[in-house]
Amino acid sequence: AQSVTQLDSHVSVSEGTPVLLRCNYSSSYSPSLFWYVQHPNKGLQLLLKYTSAATLVKGINGFEAEFKKSETSFHLTKPSAHMSDAAEYFCVVSAVFPSNTGKLIFGQGTTLQVKP
Amino acid sequence: NAGVTQTPKFRILKIGQSMTLQCTQDMNHNYMYWYRQDPGMGLKLIYYSVGAGITDKGEVPNGYNVSRSTTEDFPLRLELAAPSQTSVYFCASSYFSGTTNNEQFFGPGTRLTVL
Predict the structure, then answer these.
(1) Is A108 in the B-facing interface, judged by CB distances under 8 Å?
(2) A102 and B108: CB-CB below 8 Å?
């Protein structure tokens, strides 16, 4: 079965400094991985997705993530945080075992705080 | 396109009452999903549908029912509301062809409180 673990429940950075949100996954098969962002009282928006093409994936708003199979990781990064980046971030894996049902499995979420 | 729309945005129910959460998508997606999000938690799948007339249970289906009579609509029914169903409910849809790429599009959510 697939699972995903977000290693930090809260991350706090200063505006203009780099962002790193960590995610490890477990999957016996080549997974599809996603990062979604949720701003307060809003729905979820897709930031980026990995689907077995390039291992370095670029998303919206300057975010990117690198798929590392040897480390089973899919960490999200941004070179310079902006106040508008403050939100909840979810790492997500697509369930493909025992059958490819289209279900997504969500991590617990990481709250990103950006200080002025 | 409006994308995925949900109504109502907020609702307060008394224990034992029933209600239907509405979800509509205009992207001609075949798959639709209902999730609940409890405070500080990720999303948990309640029910999903792979097409009109076909539904299946997710992780936490107890206390809920769904139907999918059209491609566009996927209502979620709570028959006997309980305080444990206090949550934020998200509907999502995707065009899923059987590959692993299943980007889901989410509605804005319905915040439900059961007192």
Answers:
(1) yes
(2) no
pLDDT class of A98 with cuts at 50, 70, 90: low
Q: Which of B42, B44, B108 sits opposite A43 (nearest CB)?
A: B108
Which residues, listed in sequence order, are joined to residue B4 by a DSSP beta bridge?
B25
Residues A92 and A23: beta-carbon distance below 8 Å: no
- From residue A54, how far is each of A30, A66, A112 by CA, in Å? 13, 9, 26
Cβ-contact B23, B5 below 8 angstroms: yes
* 3-class state of residue B28 by DSSP: coil
> Rounded to whole angstroms, how far apart are CA atoms A13 and A18?
8
- Extract the runs of DSSP E, i.e. beta strands, from chain B: 4-7, 10-13, 19-25, 31-37, 43-51, 54-57, 64-66, 76-78, 87-94, 105-106, 110-114
Residue A100: pLDDT band (50, 70, 90) is: low
Closest CA to A7 of A107, A112, A113: A107
DSSP labels, chain A:
--EEEES-SEEEEETTS-EEE-EEEE-SS---EEEEEE-TT--EEEEEEE-SS-SEEE-GGG-EEEEETTTTEEEEEESS--GGG-EEEEEEEE--SSS----EEE---EEEEEE-
Instruction: Give the tokens for residue A67.
Output: 């798929």
A43 contact residues in B (CB cutoff 8 A): 4, 90, 106-109
